[in-house]
Write a structure and sequence with these properties.
The structure holds two protein chains of two kinds.
Chain A lengths: L5 E8 L4 H14 L3 E7 L8 E9 L12 E4 L2 H7 L8 E5 L14 E5 L1 H7 L6 H13 L3 H12 L4 H19 L18 E5 H12 L3 E4 L6 H10 L6 E4 L3 H13 L4 E5 L1 H6 L1 H9 L4 E7 L16 H6 L8 E4 L3 H18 L2 E7 H5 L1 E5 L44 E3 L13 H13 L4 H4 L4 E3 L4 E6 L4 H14 L4 E5 L2 E3 L3 H8 L2 E8 L5 H9 L5 E4 L8 H12 L1
Parallel strand pairs in A: 1-4, 4-5, 5-6, 8-9, 8-10, 10-11, 11-13, 12-13, 17-18, 17-20, 20-21
Antiparallel strand pairs in A: 1-3, 2-3, 7-14, 12-19, 16-18
Helix pairs in contact in A: 1-4, 1-5, 3-4, 4-6, 5-6, 7-8, 7-13, 9-11, 17-20
Chain B lengths: L30 H16 L6 E5 L14 E4 L5 H11 L4 E7 H7 L4 H6 L4 E7 L34 H7 L4 E6 L3 H13 L3 E7 L11 H7 E3 L9 H13 L3 E8 L5 H11 L8 H5 L5
Parallel strand pairs in B: 1-2, 1-3, 3-4, 4-6, 5-6, 7-8
Antiparallel strand pairs in B: 5-8
Helix pairs in contact in B: 1-6, 5-8
Classes of the chains: A alpha/beta, B alpha/beta.
Chain lengths: 571, 295
């Protein structure tokens, strides 16, 4: 496969403008009509520590962050030390020098460009403009659209007054001049866009917020937690425009409690959290299932267990998402592949919650939370919206009446004759407490049987490829995007490989797994956790015996890793 | 009085009309029967429309109360009635919200929620039914039990000091705080009625004796130990309220009556204000939000 993309990694000390430099590159490329997929890591601490922002740019659609970078821009010695092993012949390397805090021993074949970022910023009387000097140099060296950058810079600093805008633009220009004086020896530059630009750029977290608002979110409650808090930030900014309500709760138990209250009151309600918060919500999820009160819970997974790796990527909450709560407790679990899904599947999560009157968990993850991606403009009218079944006011109301589809009509407060109790106690069809064996068995059957329809109600898992294959790869969450590219590369090399990308993780579409497996000689299941959590459910629920391929180093897979493992299995 | 949601949907009903077909499951002689009677009376006097009343509870003997009150209702988790009620109230400010719960439910497992109901001034009425013991689990000390109480898990007597719910709620900024005895139906009904008419978070602590598991704090003890607040007590003065509680305690007595009442915006009012400020409405064009994400 010929390479059309370019990957630029900017790295340095947190607080030096690493993230804003990366954001500016990303925005400028997207504005110019290029596809972007970004990847960031930052410390769990507010000041200091290593920060990194990687932007992958291409005229063609992108599904993951790529294998490694083509261009490294190091703001300090630590950034250089941490990335030195990734420099290989052909890589371009831009660094702060002379006048920086380190002198690199550049490996052979690496194209090094010394730009005196710190020194220039000091000379210009504004040390904070260091990243603007770097940005100018990168723009000159790798054809990052200059005009778009200037526009975005002016808009970004516009609020701070013309002096600040001018200062930053001057530093940017100086960076370009410094780079222009050097001789370019590497081959890297941005390709030209293929099409007109009707796209938006969103992070996974912002996209979840947008999806919720498109779905008709009325009420949002949450407690701050990394890496999910940006969802609340987005919703706090935009939900009031639609007349909705956001409350910051005192803890995650309270936030899901508030969500259930709002939902009982007839509103569409959700919360967003990460693993530790979801653990606290366990009992309340049971209340949602038992009292058949719809709710949407987004879990942006991070490294665990316990406090774990708060800012790092992991896909390790699947066990808890599927079974976390006491007793036999049902729910629907979805997981998102990328930013587009963060909108579409959030809408779907609301539709399923309202329709099936149960908890719906939507799993995102740490790498997707902050990854910004270009996606086609999301037209709200393109997302179908489902409303809950409500009581028609005829006859005597029974909140938990057993119907053909086991879904009982709801009646919000204020509905004449609709008085009832939503209760966590086992109850009869009228809602009255009832602990008899016959009743408990009948009501558990009702609550679980209604969920049997979910598998057919949800779009079938995507099968990537046709016919028979030597190897099938099953992936979930943001690992899907990595596997897509790996499958394409393997095919381009003549291997027979297929992919299977489920987004409804529970209830499990068992027949779809079986049908896929029937066409593959071997099955690989890569996921970013220690125990192989989806592989566990696949073994438990289907006849498949996948080879579990797990990593849990706080980072996502790269396509190259999947390709490597696939070749091993294909030998 | 410009007040809570109770004025929005008025009906003419009698106390008995608020009864459901479910008979109270409490022991004979339990103070909770008196609280229930007081609630029926307060609702009838206010003319609350049961269709617009949401009665919410946690877990415990007293948390069964909503089953006996004609209303929409939620029987939630141990300690979580407050947050669930908050969600109902913020989602539907047109509803009247009545919460019931015990001392363990509200001040042990749910204690972390109480300050936030108070400081956020959630427009609801919280009726604490304080029997100073865990009843449903057959008699363990609670956070309001007297230290000397010998109980299920304290065979040699307790070792912890109790907390005082009214002082707690005054401290955290509840805008209406009162205390009464379950045996005094007249005063209890009046205070619940006042609480429901109050705009904001109203907290009414009802000392509700447990005849089965608490032989220290029985009906007689509460009656003999209660001191009604004096007529000159200024209910608008938070310092006076705290002073009254502390002074009464110092005499080994329990203050009874309306301790404190003040008016300030409720959280739902502030949120409505915020929506107004940004020109919010359900018809707001979504494209305007999405366009902000164009590069």
């Amino acid at each position: 496969m010929s390479k059309h993309d370019l990957i630029i990694r900017v790295a340095g000390e947190g607080g030096e403008g690493i993230i804003s430099t990366g954001d500016l590159i990303t925005q400028a490329c997207a504005r110019a009509g290029l596809e972007v997929y970004t990847f960031k890591t930052f410390p769990a601490e507010i000041k200091g520590g290593y920060a990194m922002y990687q932007t992958r740019v291409s005229p063609e659609p992108l599904y993951n962050q790529g294998d490694t970078f083509d261009v490294l821009c190091a703001f300090n010695g630590q950034a250089y030390d941490l990335n030195r092993s990734l420099l290989h012949p052909g890589t371009a390397f831009v660094y702060d020098g002379p006048g920086g805090d380190f002198e690199p021993d550049v490996p052979p074949g690496v194209h090094a460009y010394a730009i005196p970022m710190t020194q220039t910023a000091k000379e210009m009387g504004n040390i904070k403009a260091k990243n603007m000097v770097a940005l100018g140099a990168l723009s000159q060296l790798f054809d990052i659209p200059e005009q778009a950058l200037r526009e975005i810079l002016s808009a970004k600093f516009g609020k701070k007054g013309s002096t600040v805008v001018e200062g930053n633009l001057n530093a940017f220009t100086r960076g370009r001049e410094l780079a222009a004086a050097l001789t370019k020896s590497d081959p890297w530059k941005m390709e030209k866009p293929l099409h007109d630009n009707n796209s938006v750029v969103l992070s996974g977290n912002d996209a979840v917020g947008l999806g919720a608002i498109i779905a008709g979110l009325d009420f949002f409650a949450a407690y701050p937690i990394t890496p999910a808090t940006e969802i609340a930030r987005y919703v706090a900014r935009h939900l009031p425009k639609r007349g909705g309500t956001l409350i910051q709760a005192e803890d995650e138990i309270a936030s899901l409690g508030q969500v259930l209250g709002a939902s009982f009151a007839g509103k569409k309600a959700m919360t967003a959290t990460s693993g530790p918060g979801l653990a606290l919500m366990g009992e309340m999820l049971g209340m949602s299932f038992m009292s058949e009160t719809p709710c949407v819970v987004v879990d942006v997974q991070r490294g665990g267990p316990s406090t774990g790796l708060p800012t790092k990527h992991e896909q390790s909450d699947l066990f808890m998402a599927i079974h976390g709560s006491h007793g036999d407790c049902g729910r629907i679990v979805l997981s998102v592949e990328g930013v587009g899904d963060c909108i579409g599947l959030t809408v779907e999560a609301f539709n399923l919650a309202e329709k099936y009157q149960c908890p719906v968990l939507l799993l995102s993850d740490g790498s997707l939370a902050f990854s910004t991606q270009t996606i086609p403009y999301p037209e709200p009218a393109d997302y179908p919206i489902v409303a809950r079944k409500t009581w028609d006011g005829k006859g005597e109301y029974q909140r938990y009446v057993i119907t053909e589809d086991n879904i009982s009509p709801m009646a919000a407060p204020g509905t004449p004759g609709g008085m009832h109790i939503a209760t966590g106690l086992e109850h009869d069809q009228a809602g009255e407490p009832n602990y008899t064996s016959a009743n408990h068995e009948a009501m558990q059957a009702k609550r679980f049987d209604k969920l049997k329809a979910v598998v057919d109600d949800f779009a079938p898992a995507e099968v990537d490829g046709e016919g028979e294959a030597d190897l099938g790869i099953i992936a979930w969450g943001s690992t899907i995007g990595v596997v897509r590219e790996a499958v394409a590369r393997l095919r381009a090399e003549g291997h027979s490989v297929k992919g299977f990308y489920p987004k409804l993780l529970w209830p499990m579409p068992v027949e779809q797994y079986e049908a896929f497996a029937a066409t593959c000689a071997k099955i690989m299941l890569p996921e970013v956790n220690f125990l192989g959590q989806l592989a566990h459910f696949v073994r438990a629920e289907t006849t498949l015996r996948p080879v579990s391929y797990t990593i849990c180093g706080g980072l996502p897979f790269t396509p190259a890793m999947i390709v490597g493992k696939a070749k091993e299995m294909l030998k | 009085m410009s007040c809570a949601q109770t004025h929005l949907h008025k009906v003419e009903l009698q106390s008995k009309d608020y009864k459901t077909d479910t008979k109270p499951f409490w022991c004979p002689g339990c103070g909770d029967h008196g609280v229930l009677t007081s609630i029926y009376r307060a609702l009838a006097e206010l003319g609350v429309d049961p269709n617009y009343l949401v009665n919410i509870s946690g877990i415990g003997c007293s948390s069964r109360l909503p089953y006996f009150v004609r209303s929409f209702k939620m029987h939630t988790l141990h300690g979580r009635a407050g947050p669930v009620a908050t969600g109902v109230q913020l989602a539907r400010p047109d509803l009247a919200i009545l919460v019931n719960g015990g001392d363990g439910d509200g001040f042990s497992i749910g204690g972390g929620h109480m300050p936030h109901l108070a400081r956020k001034n959630i427009n609801m009425t919280y009726v604490l039914m304080d029997n100073r013991v865990y009843g449903l689990t057959k008699g363990q000390v609670s956070p309001t039990s007297q230290r000397q109480m010998k109980a299920y898990t304290t065979p040699y007597g307790g070792v912890e000091e109790p907390l005082d719910p009214v002082l707690y709620m005054l401290t955290y900024g509840a805008s209406f705080v009162a205390q009464t005895l379950a045996t005094n139906v007249k005063l209890t009904a009046q205070l619940i009625k006042d609480g429901m008419e109050h705009k904001g978070f109203s907290f009414i602590s009802v000392l509700s004796h447990c005849p089965t598991f608490n032989n220290i704090d029985d009906a007689k003890f509460f009656k003999e130990t209660a001191d009604e607040l004096q007529d000159q007590h200024d209910v608008t003065d938070i310092d006076a309220a705290m002073h009254a509680v502390n002074m009464t305690h110092r005499r080994g007595r329990i203050p009874v009556g309306l301790l404190y009442r003040s008016e300030r915006p409720t959280l739902d009012e502030r949120m409505a204000e915020l929506v107004k400020q940004v020109g919010g409405s359900p018809d707001y064009d979504l494209h305007k939000i999405i366009d902000l994400a164009r590069p």
